[in-house]
Amino acid sequence: MVEEFLEKLPEIDTRYEDIVPMEQVSSMVSNGGGSVTMQRDDEYRNRIMKTDEEISDKASTCGKLLIFLSVALVIMTLPFSLFVCFKVVQEYERAVIFRLGRLMQGGAKGPGIFFILPCIDSYARVDLRTRTYDVPPQEVLTKDSVTVSVDAVVYYRVSNATVSIANVENAHHSTRLLAQTTLRNTMGTRHLHEILSERMTISGTMQVQLDEATDAWGIKVERVEIKDVRLPVQLQRAMAAEAEAAREARAKVIAAEGEQKASRALREASEVIGDSPAALQLRYLQTLNTISAEKNSTIVFPLPIDLITYFLKTSEATTQQNAAAAAAAQQQMQMQQQQMQMQQQQFQQQQAQLPLQIQQQPQQLQLQQPLALTPQQQQPPTVPQQQQQYQQTQQISSAM
Q1: Which residue did the predictor score with more confidence, 220 or 46?
Q2: Quick check: bond before 79 cis, omega within 30?
Q3: 22: pLDDT confidence band, cut at 50, 70 and 90?
Q4: Cα(99)–Cα(104) distance, integer angstroms
Q5: Beta partners for 152?
Q6: CA-CA distance, 176 to 247, in Å (whole number)?
Q7: Most CB contacts within 10 A, which of 79, 140, 152, 262?
């Protein structure tokens, strides 16, 4: 109907010139904005409607005549015409039939066998199976100004065979071009970390957008998957270095927390073992059991814990005795040093009093001159003895 109307459009324009003179058309004035408005009266509209009805009536009568001739031709050429009139489509196919350029009522035919009239009918096969389209890599500039290469996979199928043939020239090619543009537009509004971490969300958004856009073409988009996101080499190195540094920092923190917990556990274990002496021996036996389970060539001779504690106690007693003897020897040495200092002070006092005695009794000193003390006898006889005793005490303390 529309095609016939377009074919008759020049005739309508000429008729319009007959109805509305050119003088009246030129006299139409614009409304101040410079755009001329065409004003058609009711008579012109009624005549247009009448012409449409006449065209449709003529087309219907002509179509009926052609259909009658085609049926007559089929009857005349039986049974050879059956090979031309009967067609078969598969389970996954549908046939869209056009009779004299118009879609037949009832929609697409199939699956199975259907009948067409020769010379006046034409049909198109439509495959209803799901198709896969591998979107080629698209260079995309993300929202944070990073250039990435993204490719995806689109799964779609024909949901309405009649609409996919009548409303669009090539539904499959249109869907593929739309998938490429939708992929670029969607990735351009996302940050890099969102593209890498939210692939499922992006895929769902693209599926909804494609499904809404292709619904008028009879196409149903079933699934969209982001297949790969390729980053520049320098950006990959930078991200790897950042991730490695973050993991090392996290590992250090975890190791520090583990050491802290281990030290607390060891402190609690030491408190438990200190409360019960038998726990230490049980722990020792458990350690021996774990060592023997490894099947190594080391031979272990267990020693009783009591014996080790006895030796520890005896060593502590001897060290205490040695410390007491050393303290006593030091006290004796200090007393002897004090005595030596006192004797030296007395000797110095005696030497200071000798000149006075010589002045008072010169005669006595001369008589007693042979009996005067020698320099060796002037020293107190006890000093060397005390020094020898001091050295002996030092030797005793060092030996202890």
Answers
A1: 220
A2: yes
A3: very low
A4: 6
A5: 135, 226
A6: 42
A7: 152
Spatial separation of the C-alpha atoms in residues 79 and 143, rounded to whole Å: 69
Which residue in 80, 94, 81 sits closest to 123, CA to CA? 94
Q: How far is CA 37 from CA 26, 28, 30, in A?
A: 11, 7, 7
Non-local CB neighbours of 128 within 8 Å, separated by 6+ positions: 92, 93, 94, 157, 158, 161
d(CA 361, CA 339): 33
Q: Can you name the residues that pair with 126 across neighbouring β-strands?
A: 94
Q: What local confidence, expressed as pLDDT, does residue 35 receive?
A: 37
Q: Tokens 């309508």 correspond to what residue?
A: 12
pLDDT, tens digit (0-9, with 9 covering 90-100), for 190-226: 998 888 888 999 999 999 999 999 999 999 999 999 9
**What single DSSP character describes residue 217?**
G
Burial class (CB in 10 A: 0-12, 13-18, 19+), 75: exposed
> Are 15 and 46 a contacting pair, CB within 8 Å?
no
Strand partners, 224: 154
Cα 34 to chain centroid, rounded: 61
